[in-house]
C-alpha cells in the first residue's frame, strides 16, 4: 500500500488552487475548452485581442492553432508590462559558479539589456523569422538573448553549452541560423568550457552563419574572426536603450529546441508565441503555487525545455523572481544547492531526479547542516523519480514540511502536463498524479484499443490538447505527423508508458521502447529500477531487456553502488532476492552488471537504448551518441560486458 501524503494544513491555507477548484476548472477545461482557454488567454497582454481560441486537428495533416488571430510580443509580456508595477523588483537572481559571485537584476535593468541587444541584432540584419543559435553558459545574457530574439521576432535555438562542436554544428545546420550568440568560455564546477573555440570549430561546416556575438565571461584567450565575430559588450554599450517590440502573430514561431536524444536523433521541436506563453505562465503559477515576491529556483539549464519554460518564460511572464545558477550541485561541495537556498531565501525549488540521487549518495549531513527554512515547495522533472529518492527529498531536504510536485512533461509539450497541484493533490511517492487543466490522458494497448479504469498501457493525449503543445518539427511537418500522430491515429502519442491506479493517478513507467516482456509479462523499467534503488547499498540502477531463450526477454540490470560499497557475489544474490521480494519472482534480474557509471544524456537521463545494445552484445550499433555526457562510461561498460563473455 502506497503511503499517502495529504496537503499539509499550513500549505493549504495559502494555496492558489484547492481540490474543489481543481475539479471545477478541470471539468470546464475539457468540456468547454474554448470558454476555459478563452478566459485564461487573457493572462497575457495582447496587442490585438484574439477572437478565435482553439483550432486543433490531430488527424489528416495535423494542425494545431491557438488564439490564431491575436497578436502580441513575448518579451513585452515578460518585461514591458511589469515596468510600471515592479520595475525595481528583482527579476533574476544570478548565482555564479563561484559561491562569492552573485547579483540581482531588476525588471527595468533586464528590459534595458534586452532592448539594447534587440537593437544590435537588428543592426546585424536579423529579421523576423530568422534563426539565432544561442550557445551560452548559465549567465544573465542567456535570458537576455532569448528575450531579444522574441522581441525582434527571431526564432531562437538554444544549444546546451556542454555539447560538442559536432553536435552544435548539426543543430546550426538543421535550422540555418544566421547568428550565433556565445561566450568566450563557460565556467562550471571551477572548470572552463571552451565555448568560443567550439563555435569556431563548428562554423567550419556551417555556411549560414554571418555573425557571432561573444559575451566576455572569463576573459580567456580566444580567437576573433574579423568581420564575423563581435564583442557583445562593445555593441550593446553603443546601441540604443529603447526598442519597440515587434508585433507577432500568436502562431508565429518563438523557438526551436532539440530534444535530449534519449531515444535517438534529436528532433527540432517548434513552439509558437501565444499558446506557449499562456501555458508556460499558467502552469508556472499554479503548479508551483507562485505568490508575489516568492523566490523561485529551477536548477535546469536554459539549454533544456525546463529552462525555457520554467526559468525564463513562465516566471518572467508572471513577474516572478527567478534564480539562475551557473554552477553544478557538487561544487565546491555537495552542499551547494542548500547553501544557495539559504543565501537567497529560496521558497520554491525545482530539480531533477538525477541530481537528487547523486546528492543522496553523499549522505544526509551535507543537507542537514543547512537551514532550508525558507523552502515551501519542492519539484522534480526529467525522469520517473524512484519512491526511495522521493522520500529522501521529502524527509531530508523538505524536513517533512514541503509538498513535492513530480511534474511529467516533454520538450514537445512545452509545459507541465501531469502533476500534483500542491494545494489540491494528496501525494503518492513516485506518481506524477493527475492531469493539469486541459490535458486528457488516454491509455491504449499495443493495438490502439482505449483502456478504461485502473490499467497499464501506452500514454496518449486526446484532442483538443493544451495551448503549449509543439506545432511541428522544424522544416519537416511530415515527420511530425508520423512521429507523434500515426502510431495511434487521432491521438498524440507520448512514447511513454504509464499505469493508472484506482484513484486515477498516473505512474510513468518509462519509455515504451524500454518496456520489457518477460514470459509474456510486460514490465516498465522504472519499477524494477526503483526496487533496486530502494536497497540501502544501491545508488542508481538501469534495467533493460535482452534476448533470453526461455523467457523471450530476460532482465539485465546495471547497478551503481553507493560510495564505499564493494561489489561481491553475495551482494549480487542479495539484490536478486531483494527485487524478488519487492516486486515478485517475475521481476528478478537475470544478470547484474556492476557499473560505476551509467551512460547519461547531457541533461542527466539514463540512455537505456545504449545499455540495451550492450546487453545484447551489439557494440557496433549504438546509434546516435552525440548527446552522451561522458562517452568513456560506455567503453567501460562494454569492456566489462566482454569480460563476462
Ligand atoms: P528524445 O525525445 O530525444 O528521446 P527525451 O525524451 O529525453 O529525448 P525530453 O523532452 O527532454 O527528451 O524528455 C521528456 C521525457 O522525459 C518524457 O517523455 C519522459 O520519458 C521523461 N520524463 C520527464 N519528466 C518525467 C517525470 N516527472 N516522470 C517520469 N518521466 C519523466
Ligand atoms: Mg522524448
Give a description of the structure:
With 645 residues, the protein is α/β, with parallel strands linked by helices. The chain has an eight-stranded mixed beta sheet with strand order 12-11-8-6-7-14-15-24, with helices on both faces. Strands 5-4-17-16-18-19-20 form a seven-stranded mixed beta sheet, with helices on both faces. Strands 22-21-23-25-26 form a five-stranded antiparallel beta sheet. A hairpin with a 6-residue loop joins strand 4 (90-95) and strand 5 (102-106). The chain is globular. The model has no long low-confidence stretch (mean pLDDT 95). The site of adenosine-5'-triphosphate (ATP) has 23 residues, from strand 25 and strand 26.
List keywords for this structure.
645 residues, alpha/beta, Rossmann fold, GMP Synthetase, Chain A, domain 3, 2 domains, eight-stranded mixed β-sheet, seven-stranded mixed β-sheet, 21 helices, binds adenosine-5'-triphosphate, binds magnesium ion, ANL_N_sf, metal-binding, ATP binding, AMP-binding_CS
Give the N-to-C terminal Cα separation. Answer: 41 Å
Structural class given helices, strands, pairing?
alpha/beta
Query: Looking at CATH, which topology of the largest domain would you report?
Result: Rossmann fold
Largest sheet features: 8 strands, mixed
**Poorly predicted ranges (pLDDT <50, ≥5 residues)?**
none
Q: Strand order, biggest sheet?
A: 12-11-8-6-7-14-15-24
Count of all domains: 2
Q: What is the level-2 CATH architecture name of the largest domain?
A: 3-Layer(aba) Sandwich
Number of helices: 21
β-strand percent reads 15-25%
Oligomer: single chain
CATH homologous superfamily placement of the largest domain: ANL, N-terminal domain
Q: Which radius of gyration do the C-alpha atoms yield?
A: 24 Å
User: What is the number of strand segments?
Assistant: 31
Question: Briefly, what CATH class of the largest domain?
Answer: Alpha Beta
Amino acid at each position: 500500500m502506497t503511503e499517502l501524503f495529504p496537503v499539509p494544513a499550513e500549505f493549504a491555507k495559502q494555496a492558489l488552487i484547492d481540490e474543489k477548484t481543481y475539479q471545477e476548472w478541470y471539468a470546464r477545461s475539457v468540456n468547454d475548452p474554448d470558454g476555459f482557454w478563452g478566459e485564461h488567454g487573457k493572462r497575457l497582454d495582447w496587442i490585438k485581442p484574439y477572437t478565435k481560441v482553439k483550432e486543433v486537428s490531430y488527424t489528416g495533416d495535423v494542425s494545431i492553432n491557438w488564439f490564431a488571430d491575436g497578436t502580441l510580443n513575448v518579451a513585452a509580456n515578460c518585461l514591458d508590462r511589469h515596468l510600471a508595477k515592479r520595475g525595481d523588483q528583482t527579476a533574476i537572481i544570478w548565482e555564479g559558479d563561484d559561491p562569492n559571485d552573485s547579483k540581482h537584476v531588476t525588471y527595468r535593468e533586464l528590459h534595458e539589456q534586452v532592448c539594447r541587444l534587440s537593437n544590435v541584432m537588428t543592426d546585424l540584419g536579423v529579421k523576423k523569422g530568422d534563426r539565432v543559435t544561442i550557445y551560452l553558459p548559465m549567465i544573465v545574457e542567456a535570458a537576455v538573448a532569448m528575450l531579444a530574439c522574441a522581441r525582434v521576432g527571431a526564432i531562437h535555438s538554444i544549444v546546451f553549452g556542454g555539447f560538442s562542436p559536432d553536435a552544435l554544428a548539426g543543430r546550426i545546420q538543421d535550422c540555418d541560423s544566421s547568428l550565433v550568440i556565445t561566450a568566450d568560455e563557460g565556467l562550471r564546477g571551477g572548470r572552463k568550457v571552451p565555448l568560443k573555440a567550439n563555435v569556431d570549430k563548428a562554423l567550419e561546416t556551417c555556411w549560414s552563419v554571418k555573425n557571432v556575438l561573444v559575451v566576455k565571461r572569463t576573459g580567456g584567450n580566444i580567437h576573433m574572426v574579423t568581420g564575423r565575430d563581435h564583442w557583445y559588450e562593445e555593441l550593446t554599450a553603443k546601441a540604443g536603450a529603447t526598442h519597440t517590440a515587434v508585433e507577432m502573430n500568436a502562431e508565429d514561431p518563438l523557438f526551436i529546441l532539440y530534444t535530449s536524444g534519449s531515444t535517438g536523433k534529436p528532433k527540432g521541436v517548434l513552439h509558437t508565441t501565444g499558446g506557449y506563453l499562456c501555458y508556460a505562465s499558467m502552469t508556472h503559477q499554479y503548479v508551483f503555487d507562485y505568490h508575489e515576491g516568492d523566490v523561485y529556483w529551477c536548477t535546469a539549464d536554459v539549454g533544456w525545455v525546463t529552462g525555457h519554460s520554467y526559468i525564463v518564460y513562465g516566471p518572467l511572464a508572471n513577474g516572478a523572481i527567478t534564480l539562475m545558477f551557473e554552477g553544478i550541485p557538487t561544487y565546491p561541495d555537495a552542499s551547494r544547492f542548500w547553501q544557495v537556498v539559504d543565501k537567497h531565501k529560496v521558497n520554491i525549488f525545482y530539480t531533477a531526479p538525477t541530481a537528487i540521487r547523486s546528492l543522496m549518495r553523499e549522505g544526509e549531513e551535507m543537507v542537514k547542516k543547512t537551514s532550508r527554512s525558507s523552502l515551501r515547495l519542492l519539484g522534480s522533472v526529467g525522469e520517473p523519480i524512484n519512491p526511495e529518492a522521493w522520500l529522501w527529498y521529502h524527509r531530508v531536504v523538505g524536513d517533512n514540511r514541503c509538498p513535492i510536485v513530480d511534474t511529467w512533461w516533454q520538450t514537445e509539450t512545452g509545459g507541465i502536463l501531469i502533476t500534483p497541484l500542491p494545494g489540491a493533490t494528496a501525494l503518492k511517492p513516485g506518481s506524477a498524479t493527475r492531469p493539469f487543466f486541459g490535458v486528457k490522458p488516454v491509455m491504449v494497448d499495443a493495438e490502439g484499443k482505449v483502456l478504461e479504469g485502473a490499467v497499464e498501457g501506452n500514454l496518449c493525449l486526446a484532442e483538443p490538447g493544451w495551448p503549449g503543445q509543439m506545432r511541428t518539427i522544424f522544416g519537416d511537418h511530415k515527420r511530425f505527423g508520423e512521429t507523434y500522430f500515426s502510431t495511434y491515429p487521432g491521438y498524440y502519442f507520448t512514447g511513454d508508458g504509464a499505469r493508472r491506479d484506482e484513484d486515477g493517478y498516473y505512474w510513468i513507467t518509462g519509455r515504451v521502447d524500454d518496456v520489457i516482456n518477460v514470459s509474456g509479462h510486460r514490465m516498465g523499467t522504472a519499477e524494477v529500477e526503483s526496487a533496486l534503488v530502494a536497497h540501502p547499498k544501491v545508488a542508481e540502477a538501469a534495467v533493460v531487456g535482452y534476448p533470453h531463450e526461455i523467457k523471450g526477454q530476460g532482465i539485465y540490470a546495471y547497478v551503481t553502488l553507493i560510495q564505499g560499497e564493494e561489489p561481491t557475489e553475495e551482494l549480487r544474490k542479495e539484490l536478486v532476492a531483494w527485487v524478488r521480494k519487492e516486486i515478485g519472482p517475475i521481476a528478478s534480474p537475470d544478470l547484474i552488471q556492476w557499473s560505476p557509471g551509467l551512460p547519461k544524456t547531457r541533461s542527466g537521463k539514463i540512455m537505456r537504448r545504449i545499455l540495451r545494445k550492450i546487453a545484447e552484445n551489439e557494440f557496433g550499433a549504438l546509434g546516435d551518441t552525440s548527446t552522451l555526457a561522458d562517452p568513456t562510461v560506455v567503453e567501460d561498460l562494454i569492456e566489462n560486458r566482454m569480460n563476462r563473455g
